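Feature request disguised as a bug: please show the residue count (705) next to S9 family peptidase in the output. Example input:
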Amino acid sequence: MTERPDPTASATAVRPPRAEPRPVTLEQHGDSRVDDYAWLRSAEWRAVMRDPSVLEPEIRSYLEAENAYAAAVLGPLDGLKAALVAELRGRIREDDSSVPAPDGLYSYATRYRLGGEHPLIVRTPRDGGVEEVLLDGDALSQGKAYFRLAGADHAPDHARLAYAVDETGGEVFRIHVRDLATGAELADIIDETAGSFLWETPTSLLYVRLDAEHRPASVHRHRLGTPVESDELVYREADPGFFVSVGQTQSRRFVTVDVHDHETSETLILDTEAPNAGLVLVAPRKTGEIYSLDHGGGDRFVILTNADDAEDFKIVTAPVASPGRETWTDLVPHVRGRLILSHTTYAGHLTRLERENGLPRIVIRRLEDGAEHAIAFDEEAYSLGMVDGYECDTRTLRFSYSSMTTPARVYDYDMETRERVLRKEQEVPSGHDPALYVTRRLYATAPDGETVPISVLHHRDTPLDGSAPCLLYGYGAYGIAIPASFSTNALSLVDRGFVYAIAHIRGGKDKGFHWYADGRRERKVNTFTDFIAAGEHLARTGFTARGRIVAQGGSAGGMLMGAVANMAPDLFAAIVAEVPFVDVLNTMLDETLPLTPPEWPEWGNPIADVEAYRRIKAYSPYDNVAAQNYPAMLVLAGLTDPRVTYWEPAKWVARLRATKTDTNPLVFRTNMDAGHGGAGGRFERLDEIAFVQSFALWIAGRAGL
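Example output, currently without the count:
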């Protein structure tokens, strides 16, 4: 085994930049705080998301100085990074394609060309024939520093294609429409949208527009050939704490306008068979109650909801003619510990994805007689998902399956005969032998006695005597469960002796809705202590050792990284924080920021609630940087990020540089051409992954392997 190098050597050879402290005193609830680095927030941040060139020169100068420092410190790893990129790329089938999805006379799919960064949208006649390229993402991206094709959908008559693109990373989408007979772009170009749209008729689109605060707040109707300026307002949400999106039931009869924050939802429907009737409210919003609606035909809706204290959700039906809450009738009752995640209603069947004991399964219900059966698998940990299709009157369900050792598979499943047909298996061109790897499900004990699941992957030859380094990933927010799915990227670390682990901590729904509720607002600290408990368990059981763990998380998981770095710095060799939400208190106190009002149900409202203020202040990473030793740190940001604005990590790094007492490397890099999701192209993204992995390998003493 290669000896672990001194990680401070190249970091101390170059002087890191230091942001000038410019103290600003902040007052709230009789409490005073001093923010030395508030000046790093651009006064023109809304404009920066649309045009990065308008960033103030002194802020740009600081970010570029940090980028230059990152290049100097990690420059010696360029050879390793290049090797990792080649390795990662070698595991991707470059001309990959999706399984075609049938719709009427055609089947639609996405595919890539060799060397292509962006997808092509294609179709073929349903019964076979010559492929037609409808949209070429590579061609559209030419000459652009950033490009992402966010969505594409064909009109009901198959004559046109609408698609949304983001050209800055700021998630400000432009919708275009293409005539599929001629390939010509129509003059109908819709700017300032949230990227959520659908075809209402063959010649009209419904789409969601962003408001002045970058929030998806209103639904509009565009009729092809008419000026966008005259588009009809269909719905406007007055409460800045609620976001708006548009959808469609599986039957395609009903358009849905969905209004929601993190704990409350409301749906309005538009019947395409009676378009003049306008929007109809299903059930008025009720704080803490969530519901989502589907329709597979007939006279009843099928609704997934947590109403009536159904913490882990139940499924009800309601008449199409009167869908209000008072008419809801239980179809699939609530069972505590069985979390129903989603549902789809077909003409003769209801499918639901649920999780029990931490593992997912798909349940098929015949609507005619209520008979049910489940699709499940036998591995200790795996990922399962239902794949959306266009058609409603079908017996075929498409689903995906993978585990940490098993590449992704896509099946078509006959819901009557129970026959499954493998339609696609993820190909690893450079080769993959599942027998070389071991996957495990472990359980750590949290400080309050709860058991925290940990999914583990390691090479079968990796010694479990505490000598192995470990990459421990965590998220823990918004009820998002991190699946134990196959990752070709993780293999580069595992093949070099790393243990790869996912901590399924509170704040996600991995063990049911209560797992989420126990990791938000007044119980948020459970998320952090669960992650620490997971790391300590891995060290105690020989999978790794204290000081050998590289912790990784992004966005709200980046907040987790900042919190555990403050709380248990000696547990970790390094922290990798990607687009980290670390200036929590200042952000939650600023209701002009895009996500702040909708985030109050998740974290609490420190403006209105002094207890929420004190609670957030007690864990907010930026507010709790201390004069102590920290592990090595790699921090990544995106200049046009509307979700976690670039200045959050920039301020955090500046305060860490001025406060921490160690000489461990602290490296900060901002992607000046991208936002929250990083690079837009699939191979460009590999460069960012390899950058993180080379840092982890260097810190763990495995850079020479």
